[in-house]
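Re: the pair you flagged

First of the two:
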Amino acid sequence: MEIISFVQQSKKKSRITFPIRQKSYKSVAYAYTYPSEKHIFKAGRVNSSLTVKGAFAAIGQGLTSSGEWFVKNIKAIVISVFVIVGCIGVAGAAIFTTNYLLSHTKAITINSEEAFDIANLDKLMAAFALESSAEVDENGLIIGEDSSIDMSALSQPVEYQTYTVKSGDTISGIAIKFGLKNISTLISVNDIGNVRTLAAGQKLKIPSIDGIVYTVQKGDSLTSIASANNVKLETLLDVNELTTETLTAGQVLFLPGVGLDQKTLQSRMGELFILPISASFKWSSPYGWRADPFTGVQSFHTGTDMACPEGTPILAAMSGKIAEVGNNRTYGNYIIINHNNGYQTVYAHMSKTIAKKGQWVSQGTKIGLVGSTGYSTGPHLHFMVYKNGNRIDPMTVLKK
């Protein structure tokens, strides 16, 4: 009976108590109770896209898809790249052109006779030339004097007289005083190294006719000397009072009607210029026709260029007076020096000018620094030489 009674007794539901949390700030304990029959725990498979394996799989699949897309669209990609690069190039060219046009307010035909700045410079040089016009031409003939030769005088022996130089005398003035027509005569006969050193009190030998002296060299003959200097053999014999054609080395002859060669004359006149750059440099562009470095069009280059680092000292190629210190869009910062005998020199594209207008400078004086101002492709000196207002090739007067 006791067993039956136990079985028939109704079941009491048991409860399990889980202390989930306790809040100590009120010293009150809270507890949650859950019926035991509701807590059924099952093991199951968990699927997640964030697993490491899944991540690598996704990456691999993405790369494969990207590769397939790239292969399919390679042609379009290449074309797109070229288009982008082309656009960048066009944009860069546009920017360069815009900046260039801003720097040059109107079209410049550089190195052309019609170029505004060059034309103005030529006018300026012509004005300077009027102030210091040369007294002699490039062959030593005195300007304004009759250059014809008295042939009868060439059959007479040359005679000499002595003249004492006075204050204010010039070599051409002395020549005119004695009826000579070429300053080469006095320079050669008196072995004058530089006419600028002519001083009051100096004694000069004055020949009766124009000509130069020649010292016979070993192997010379009277015939070869006459032929080389375009003088008749008979004239050479008469002027030097020679009774025989036999010569000896060291013998001095007078060559009537002959002048010094231009290079020797320039040197004796003090007309040879030193290089305006004493530091290391490169001859980058000569005087004359060339392709313009910007446009490629054939144009006349008015001077000679010496490329060297910015800041390199620029020297006065010859003594003279600073006639102009200026700036223009073609030559940038420039200096003009007025020299004797109708010469002017121009130094262009300077980064800095040092000499001042009106200042007298000696040959070799620092007048400025090399730069790239004006119409220039890089740091260099643009060196120009004018003779009586006309441009000449600087290489014809530079000491080498």
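Second of the two:
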Amino acid sequence: MPSIPAAPSSPPSSSSLINKSGGDLSAVDLICADMDGTLLSPDHNIPDITFNRINKADNNGCPVVPATGRCRWSAAKCFAHGGVDLYSRPGIYLNGCVVYDQTGSVAAEKTHSYDDVVSVVNNFKDEENVVIMCCSGDHVYAPFESPIIASLADTYGDPYPENCRSYDGMLERIKKENIPVHMIHIMSTEGSLSPTVLEKAQNFAKYMGEFVPSRRSNVEESSSPCARSGGCTSAQSLPFLTDIIPAGAHKGFGVDALKEKLGYKCVACVGDALNDYQMLKEADISVAMGNAIPQIKVGEELPCHRFSPGFDPWWRHF
């Protein structure tokens, strides 16, 4: 599931270079780039000029890989327009819940325990106008069919959810087939999620896990009790949807996994949103987009200096 575009009315631009490797861009051997709000234009496509830069970097021995909230299947459709096959290169997907190597195999992942999946379903299935869906790699499992569920695929390019016919059927299939659940969607079927449901999701996660605010707004936390979680994170990605993901799953985890598993020495990361923050902290060279939220562009942990407007000038270094 893609995040809310950071600048829906204008093309992405880069403005801040956070250089933590002494300025030696020639040392970069991997570029991890966010998609929505970064690589993608407002119409959810990768511009031709960006494909040109990706191909140039590839030819120079520095592959460009996605670090995105989308699943690989969804991201691959965007890259395929430029002839780039994501199934034969590394990548960070579902906000770091699953990381693939250059052969298309899982290099690292964070998954929910089955007990946590059951707990989320039991705590939210009776909420009015709410549906819970489970994401496993390139698959989405839903308890029933509806136009709003199908709209995720039609609007955002996600896989069409597989209808399990009921919540019990969804849980039974996950358990019987030993399906790894990377992310759980809690989605409103009518407009934005209510503050009550958002607060409940936050409390569920933070009771034993941690809470991540919406990427665009600060949501007040509540200290009211909720069901015990084995360790989860709550993160709102769209006005009508919030995700429950395993504790420790973020794009920074993906960067660390690629360096450890595949031997990359100097990784450059590009992002614009709160879900990119950990990735930018773990990067050797970090670039914040011009449309990035303030927490990404400035701060003691990510000191920035001004860089040329536009994404293309930075790519010229590769």
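Residues 65 and 312 are 17 Å apart (CA to CA).

-B.
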